[in-house]
Amino acid sequence: MEQAEFIRTILAEREDDLPRLVFADWLEEHGQQARAAWIRASCQLARVRANDATFGELIELRWESFRLCRPEWWQDVPGVTQQNDRGIFRFRVESRAAVTKLGKLPWLGEAVADGWLEGISVEKCDESRARLQAKWPDIAQQVPLFVQPVPQISDAGLRFYLELPHLWGLDLPAYATRNPSIRLLDRRTDLRELNLKDVPTDGAVAPLMEQVGRLSGLRRLSVYHFRQATDDDLEPLSGLTKLRQLELYWCSSITDVSLARFCQLPCLRMLKLVGCERVTEAAIAEFRRSLPTLQIEQV
Questions:
Q1: What is the mean pLDDT of residues 164-173?
Q2: Please, which residues bridge with residue 82 across strands?
Q3: Is 271 helix (H, G, I), strand (E, B) or coil?
Q4: How many angstroms separate the CA atoms of 158 and 177, rounded?
């Protein structure tokens, strides 16, 4: 198995530690002990609390091993947060200046190809930032993107992001669902992560959920403040057969009917329910007994 195959597996199954740890074993076997140690320490740190006895030791190991394995071409970029997610980075961009600088980095493609970078998160996206990203060279536009549009994004801005060739993640504010270009959403069967924030306009919940139900590549879905959404409204989500993580916040009208549907999703590993007051503790307890591999959190 070649390095490129390991990296493709990590990106395809990014919620799981196992592909990362298998890659770490392969790296160690091929003389890259420091990078292997960095990946393992990064995965362990994601699973322990700050008051754990091993936390300080793991922090030091992660820092020292990265110092030893850091590529010569790697550099810090002003305005860009380099976020370590269990041994692979995601860049988080907040300013217009950083959007411009990032597009000019000559090593972005190499960082992705070598498994150092999984993607770029661009926050506060509007039409002006869309124009800046449109000027990125081809090598930068091949990097997977996770975008967070501003609440009042224009239709032209939303269309630009929905038509990006490598859009993997999207935070969709309620106001954006009023734009005509929202009809493009269900074409993005390659979308991996989707956050739906706040209630859309009246009568828009069911059509929006029908679109979401056609996003066949979705791995993680978070839904916030859909208080009026019914079991019938969320029924299309039961077709998301690759979904691994589902988070529902203050969807206070759904019942045990929705819980039963979600627990049948074949790849689901995490179900988080916050403020879903009509879902009963008895139903949750029953599914915990019958589906021990599914982690259910209720708040």
A1: 91
A2: 91
A3: strand
A4: 10
pTM: 0.87
Instruction: Specify the length of the chain in residues.
Output: 299
- What confidence score (pLDDT) does residue 202 get? 65
Name the token pair of 275.
């403020």
Helix (H/G/I), strand (E/B), else coil: 121: strand
Report whether pLDDT(200) > 80. Answer: no
SS3 of 151, please?
A: coil
CA 179 to chain centre: 23
The answer to whether the beta carbons of residues 91 and 80 sit under 8 Å apart is yes
Banded pLDDT at 77 (limits 50, 70, 90): confident
Domain boundaries, the chain: 1-70, 77-298
Confidence grade of residue 136 (pLDDT, cut at 50, 70, 90): confident
CATH superfamily assigned to domain 77-298: Ribonuclease Inhibitor (3.80.10.10)
Is residue 208 within 8 Å of residue 196, measured between CB atoms?
yes
pLDDT greater than 90 at residue 254: yes
Angle CA(12)–CA(15)–CA(17) in degrees, nearest 5?
Answer: 100
**298 torsion bin: left (phi>0), alpha (psi -120 to 50), beta (else):** beta
Q: Please name the residue that has the structure tokens 């409204």.
A: 233
Counting other chains too, the contacts that 108-113 makes at CB distance below 8 Å and 24 or more residues apart are 108/139, 108/140, 108/143, 109/139, 109/140, 109/142, 109/143, 110/73, 111/71, 111/74, 112/142, 112/143, 112/144, 113/4, 113/7
